[in-house]
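User: Design a sequence. Structure:
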């Protein structure tokens, strides 16, 4: 209502004036016209507001749709990246253990007691044997928060390429070096699932590394460790259970060698490369020729010490075994330091290769192995402790096994 009409209406009401029909009709007509203008103005405002609201909703919907398409595109790009890189996602479960060489069994150890337990991952060549390369860059390994479960296992979820790798385990509960595990292929993109599949890996503690080892003086003035006995089938079983990851396995034993599952038999039927990886799994290594020879210096066959009973497990039944015998069974085949079966039972791989500038250059590249075994004639001279055999590192026989050493 305009100001003039409003002023007239207020005065008429204030003075209580009775208007004739003509002025009254004029005023009412003005009021009606003013009301129509007000309604029109409100309709225009509401229309404009509705239009703006609709525009805002449309813009918001368009923005949401754009963001959703962008999110889908980014997710698709990520899937393409994961598929192209064959990136897997899995749960790594570490299961620490101690080893008892007398009972020939492992004992679980809670990772909660090993606060420094950790792992690192290194590239591995696709050659045979695989060669350890550089540590993988952090950008190639996506790790989640790790936790120790009720069974004492250390777990975390990983995303990493499906490539052959070496895993290094440190912080194993003492003053010892790392243990190592070769993995021929981690889970890849095709293996991704929810929840992620778990890979269980036993990790030897420092106590397991030290169990059953004899410390001897080294040529550099320090010391080195060498196992009292040859590796047994029971000890191998811990590592052999990882065949699906490592690809490493032993040759199947025929009945004459398995002997109905007799406990404590030495491991045989593995080549030098598998022997190296097995020792690494326990935080150990193969001995050098010099270390093996040094360990044999106080053997009865060198010192002339007389012993009663079994001299060594060599050919024939006179020593009590026709083929393999439980380790540490011959009282005549043990050094003053307590190292058993250097002369007999099985020969043992070393870490040394025949060199081109060595005594037999024509056999360069072959791997040395030492000691006699159950197939050697019993009347061989004691020089068998000094004789260095050589063979291809891929050589496998039922008379050749492993004795590990350590730093």
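Assistant: Done.
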């Amino acid at each position: 209502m305009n100001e003039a009409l409003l002023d007239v209406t207020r005065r008429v009401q204030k003075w209580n004036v009775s208007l004739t029909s003509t002025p009254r009709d004029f005023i009412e007509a003005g009021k009606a016209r003013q009301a129509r203008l007000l309604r029109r103005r409100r309709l225009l405002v509401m229309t404009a507001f509705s239009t703006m609201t609709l525009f805002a909703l449309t813009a918001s919907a368009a923005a949401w749709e754009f963001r959703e398409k962008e999110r889908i595109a980014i997710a698709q790009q990520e899937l393409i990246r994961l598929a192209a890189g064959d990136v897997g996602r899995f749960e790594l479960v570490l299961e620490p253990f101690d080893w008892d060489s007398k009972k020939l069994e492992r004992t679980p150890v809670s990772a909660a007691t090993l606060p420094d337990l950790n792992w690192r991952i290194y590239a591995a060549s696709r050659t045979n044997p695989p060669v350890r390369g550089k540590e993988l860059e952090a950008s190639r390994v996506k790790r989640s928060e790790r936790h120790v479960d009720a069974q004492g296992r250390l777990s975390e979820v990983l995303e990493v390429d499906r490539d052959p790798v070496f895993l290094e385990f440190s912080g194993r509960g003492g003053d010892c070096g790392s243990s190592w595990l070769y993995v021929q292929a981690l889970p890849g993109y095709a293996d991704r699932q929810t929840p992620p599949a778990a890979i269980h890996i036993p990790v030897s503690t420092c106590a397991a590394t030290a169990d059953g080892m004899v410390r001897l003086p080294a040529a550099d003035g320090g010391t080195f460790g060498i196992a009292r006995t040859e590796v047994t089938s029971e000890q191998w079983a811990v590592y052999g259970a990882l065949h699906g990851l490592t690809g490493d396995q032993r040759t199947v034993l025929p009945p004459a060698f398995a002997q109905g599952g007799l406990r404590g038999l030495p491991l045989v039927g593995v080549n030098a490369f598998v022997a190296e990886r097995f020792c690494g799994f326990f935080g150990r290594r193969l001995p050098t020729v010099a270390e093996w020879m040094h360990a044999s210096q106080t053997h009865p066959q060198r010192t002339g010490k007389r012993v009663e009973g079994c001299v060594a497990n060599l050919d024939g039944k006179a020593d009590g075994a026709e083929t393999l015998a439980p380790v540490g069974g011959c009282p005549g085949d043990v050094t003053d330091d307590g190292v058993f079966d250097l002369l007999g039972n099985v020969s043992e791989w070393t870490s040394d290769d025949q060199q081109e500038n060595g005594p037999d250059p024509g056999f360069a590249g072959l791997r040395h192995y030492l000691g006699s075994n159950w197939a050697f004639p019993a009347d061989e001279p004691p020089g068998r402790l000094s004789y260095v055999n050589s063979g291809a590192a891929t050589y496998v026989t039922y008379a050749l096994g492993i004795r590990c050493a350590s730093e």
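The chain is about 30% helix and 20% strand. The chain has three domains: 3-82, 87-208, 213-406.
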